[in-house]
């Protein structure tokens, strides 16, 4: 049931809709799925689910304070340091990853993040399913669906090695460049 709600949702939401106030995304725990009208890589299909995420994230000794609303909104307007989806998309789109601040954080810089936000506004669409313990669904979804943009728990995916390499190369280049803004 949850997989179908993400792979064939009744509705997909755009950045403008999600970022409007009041927005449609509930402040509740759950799983969200990202579809793209244009694929971020020629090696990937457009028009279907390519990535799932959860909110809140459940760790061994705590649960994050995130919910569907805060997490989905962050993916649309945050930065690569706080969003693995944004990091992946920016790397696939060829944006330059840079060390920022003290040099420990990596983002695409002000201009790159703005370019990525614009690309997502044009091509990314999201759906979600509320669930009290989304971490209980995450492994099953990643195992049973073809989600090429998910890396965690997804070594079986045919795009995993390529995406891992693309992200590693972007991080290596960023380490070689001076700290940006």
From TrEMBL:
Ranges for domain GIY-YIG catalytic: 48-168
Domain of life of the organism encoding this protein: Bacteria
One Pfam family, short name: GIY_YIG_2
Protein name in UniProt: GIY-YIG catalytic domain-containing protein
Organism in which the protein naturally occurs: Streptomyces macrosporus
